[in-house]
Structures are given as structure tokens and as C-alpha cells.
Amino acid sequence: MSSYVxxxxxxxxxxxxxxxxALPECTACGHCFYPPQSxxxxxxxxxxxxLVDGGYARVLSTICIHRTLDAAWAAWxxxxxxxxxxxxxxxxFALADSxxxxxxxxxxxxxxxxxxxxxxxxxxxxxx
Amino acid sequence: xxxxxRDFSGVVVAAPTSFGYARYxxxxxxxxxxxxxxxxxxxxxxxxxxIDGLSASSFTLPPNPVASLSRSLGLSLNWLEAIPFGGASGxxxxxxxxxxxxxxxxxxxxxxxxDCNPKGAFEDLVSAFSTPAMDAVFPxxxxxxxxxxxxxxxxxxxxxxxxxxxxxxLCVSQRFNAQLCEHALLRTPISRDDYFASAPxxxxxxxxxxxxxxxxxxxxxxxxEAHARELDIPYARILGLVEQHSAYAQDRLVLRGGWAxxxxxxxxxxxxxxxxxxxxxxxxxxxxxxxxxxxxxxxxPSGHARDFVRNHDLRFNGDFPxxxxxxQLGCGQAGAAxxxxxxxxxxxxxxxxxxxxxxxxxHIGLASxxxxxxxxRCLASGAVILEGV
Lengths: 128, 389
Description:
The structure holds two protein chains of two kinds. Chain A is mostly beta strands. In chain A, 10% of the residues lie in helices and 38% in strands. Chain A is built from one helix and seven strands; from the N terminus they run αβββββββ. The mean pLDDT of chain A is 94. By secondary structure, chain B is an alpha/beta fold. Chain B has 14 helices and eleven strands. Chain B has helices at residues 29-44, 68-72, 89-103, 121-127, 131-136, 146-160, 164-178, 192-197, 225-231, 259-270, 287-296, 305-311, 327-331, 338-350, and strands spanning 11-22, 53-57, 79-82, 108-115, 200-203, 205-206, 215-224, 235-245, 279-281, 364-373, 378-388. Chain A binds chain B through residues 1-2, 4-6, 8-9, 34-37, 60-70, 72-73, 77, 79, 81, 83, 85, 89, 91-95, 102, 117, 119, and chain B through 122-123, 126-128, 131-132, 134-144, 146-148, 150-151, 154-155, 158, 199-205, 252-253, 375-376. Strand 3 of chain A pairs antiparallel with strand 5 (200-203) of chain B, so a sheet runs across the interface.
């Protein structure tokens, strides 16, 4: 299983591991974005910090992966992957336990996958 | 938009060429460039020494740089461009080549998209496609670009009420068209039942919604119209062309692509209307993306491609010929050549070189492209309208 993580992603995961969830934020203009990079995609400033975030989001869509290109993932499919939009207006992919309908309010947090990789997961805020 | 934008008068496209489609390859990408060029020279009635411009699109050419092609193809060039934009490569290559010929920077430009496909190559490519994909897409199920495409599809289905029944119509029509395409790898027609029986890959996407990676090459020549007439070769004029990058980046839901932003300008600059288009080639990585192109290019209102597809026959002999070679769903996706496939087929059709799948009275054709899923959507898009002469 791919264990590549960029330096920016590793730093984001470190912050999220301590506080539950975080997102890159530009210290110059306050723009929040994802995936992480070391400069702001809005104002280009090279000063980004990882802002602790409550992780509140809504599901945009959920899909179910049955076939994987990495043999190591074969043990864990089928797997649900959600696309969510956080209250800070950032969209990202996260693992889910079920096929959550679009619009479901969720909380996103970092968790260690069975593979040992750190990944984002979501849980429904109001049990379905 | 720049007030200095100009038309493409005096420059034409010729020698539409597809070469070497195969599920897996043992030859490198350079070999596909070479053989495609070789075939193109026959169609263009040219000697290799007359090619002084080259546009190259490929994912698998490395470690050889694009610069190496001038040596390995034995070309002495005045103009050489790398267009690594996947599904948008063909339209983008054509635009740049046309401007080069107009400006006198080159006399004849060969535009080629080519990729090899040794076993495991596709997995290697998508697992390291971009830093955002490596960080935030591939770790989530290791499905490559199929994962974000599945989300685009799901979001499109939710927003428009489109169903797999609607996608089935598209996929069945393209496999029908592929029957008569010599280079198509999937020439067996499929039925609606076949479509629904196909295995789930990343639901809502099933196997027959998705392109099959393969090896191959597609290309065309760009040259002055006067030169094409001297050579006595069929050619097509470029009536209009648009290109976008990261259009609608603020959209949380991916329901439209860049074509919607510029379709009015495309038709205005071409001097034609939607109803004048005799044949359409869309970039068909998956059905929802085709539907978004049909909408964004003005063939129906936004969200209504399902009605359009229900009310039209998309086969090459139907009332709305679409992806008449079968598209990538029928031919296979030969890497960056997939970004040329539709455009090459449109050139073939409007210059009456499509053989058994020739669309009667095909005169005006539109080809669109969509490429580079760096994270959650394709970033590059474009479209071109061509007129056969």
C-alpha cells in the first residue's frame, strides 16, 4: 500500500492527530484550502499554518470502491469514500462506514487505518 | 477576453491518423510516435524532411524528454511543443500548432498523442499522478482517477435525476459505433442488459462505464490551406477553438466543465450555431462527463442531457452522430492519445475518410477535450469546431 505522504500532508496529519481535525490556512489572507501545499492558492503567500478545525461538514456524495489498483487494499474493499464539504468551505475525501446520503451532517476526524496509514474518516452527527 | 483574439483563417488540419491500438505494449512510447508519424506522412503525402514542427503529448515518454523526439524521429525542427494535458491535449495541441503556422514559425506541424501500456504501467501512472492525488485521492481506496470520477457521477446523478439507464444508452451507442472502427479494441456491441450486468468498480461506476487503458497513438497535421491544396489532400478548416483551465474552481459540486464558460464564444467565432454541428466527439472518461459536455456545449440546457440522449440516436447512422469511432469507451484509452481520439475522428468524418462509419453529409464537426484529474476534477478543457472542405 502506498505510503507516500508529502511533507505538508504529514504536518497536517500531525496537527489533526493532536486535535482531531485541521485544515491549511493562509496566515496572510485567511484562505482555507485542501489538499495542503506550502503557499496560498489565493494570494500566493508562502506562510501557511494548519488551523485546528471542528471538523463539521456535510456529505456531497458517497461512492463505494469495489476494485482497487493496489493489491494491499484488496483486503478492505468494498469501501465507502465520501466527498464532503466542511463548514469552512473546503472539500475533501474521507472514508465512511456506510453509504451516507448527500446532505448528511458529519464530523471528519483523523484515524489510523488498519493498514497503519493515517486517513480522514467521517461519522454522521445525527445517527442515521 | 482579449480584443486581439484572431481567427484561424489560412490554417487547416489534415491526415487524421490512429495507430497501434493494443491492450498491452512491449514497445516504448517513442515507437508509437514514430509509427504514427510514419502513417501520417503517407496520409499527408509528405516526406519526413518537410515536417518542421512537432507537438507531443504523452505520459509514458519519460525518462526520454520530449526534446529527445527530434533526435529519435530524425527531425530537424523549428518548433517543438510538449502538451502534457491528457484528455485536453488534442485541442490544445491544435491551437498552438495553428498559431505557429499562422505566424510562420513552422510550415507543417505534426501533432501526436502517444502512450505505451506495459502491464502495471497504468497503476504506476495513477498512483503517482500528482502530489494532491498522492496525498488526498489515492490513499482512499487506491482506485486512481476512477474515485473522483465516481463522485462527479454521483453528484451529477443527484443534481439532475439522471440514472444508469441514461448512461446505458450512451455506452451501448458507443460500442455500436466501435464495431466499424478498425483501431477499436472493444468492437463487440453491448446490450442494455450487458451494461447493467457489468461489475461494479467504484459505484455508481461499473466496468462498462469506464475506459480500458491501452497503448496507441493518434495525430494530425497542421499546415497552411494553400499548402494542403498543393498536396491535394483532404483537410478541415478550424472555425473556432476555446480552451480553459480550472474553470469554475469555486464550484463545490462538479456539475459543469470549462466548455460551458466559453461555448457562446466558440460558436460566435466559428460563425455557426449548435444546430449546424453534424457530428460531435466528446471526451468520454465516463458517461456523466459526456453528459456535461453535451450540456456545456449548448446541445441542451444544463441538467437535461438525459432527455437529449433519450430523444436522439447517437449511433454514427443516427440523427445525432456522437463518438462515431466508439470513443474511448469503444477504442480504449491510449493515455494522452485519448485526448486526440475524438478530434482525429471528427477530422476523418468531415473530410469523408471514415469508411464504413462515414456520417452522411458530415460537414461541421465539434470535438471537445477534458483532462488532468489532479485532485477532484479535470483541470483542462477545450473544444474546437472544424469544417470539412
